[in-house]
């Protein structure tokens, strides 16, 4: 049988234990522009905000143009600021899925949900449930009018 020296075993063990520390998710930083309420572009890279689902651009919530308002709000939050996005995953369209923050530390996804312009994307996380409950309780954004979930809207309005 093959025998490893103690030093080789120790090195391999430390490498395995250090892997999570060394394998930090990629970070994309720079000025950005919004494509819609949950997608932005930094340095020509499309970034989907992790854990939220914003209203589709052409979606209305009663008479409220919730999709247009979601896009406008994300643009306003990012305008003139450097955005830092920490990658969590990739989606089926090849976009980076990331938690994106302003220099102040404000999480863009959390703020969009807090404003009632996006919902917690429960298929992927429950991280924004508190913000959603707050928006619902204070009838912010679409919660003041009633709405169809973005997922259901996409099912009924395929592109």
Characterise this structure.
By secondary structure, this protein is an alpha+beta fold. It has a single domain (24-154), classed as OB fold (Dihydrolipoamide Acetyltransferase, E2P), CATH 2.40.50. It contains five helices and seven strands, in the order αββββαββαβαα. The protein has a five-stranded mixed β-barrel with strand order 1-2-3-6-5. Helix 3 packs parallel to helix 4. Residues 8-12 have low confidence and may be disordered.
Strand order across the biggest sheet? 1-2-3-6-5
- What is the overall silhouette? globular
Total number of β-strand segments?
7
Q: What is the CATH architecture term?
A: Beta Barrel
Order of helices and strands: HEEEEHEEHEHH
Query: Which structural class do the helices and strands define?
Result: alpha+beta
Question: Can you count the helices?
Answer: 5
Q: Average pLDDT, to the nearest integer?
A: 89
C-alpha end-to-end distance? 61 Å
Give the domain tally. 1
- Runs in which pLDDT lies below 50 for 5 or more consecutive residues are 8-12
Considering DSSP H and I runs of 4 or more, what fraction of the residues is helical? 25-40%
Beta-strand percentage range: 25-35%
Give the C-level CATH assignment: Mainly Beta
**Gyration radius, to the nearest Å?**
20 Å
Major beta sheet, specifics?
A: 5 strands, mixed, barrel
Classify the fold: give the CATH topology.
Answer: OB fold (Dihydrolipoamide Acetyltransferase, E2P)
Domain TNase-like: 35-145
Pfam family, one: SNase
Keywords: Signal
Signal peptide: 1-23
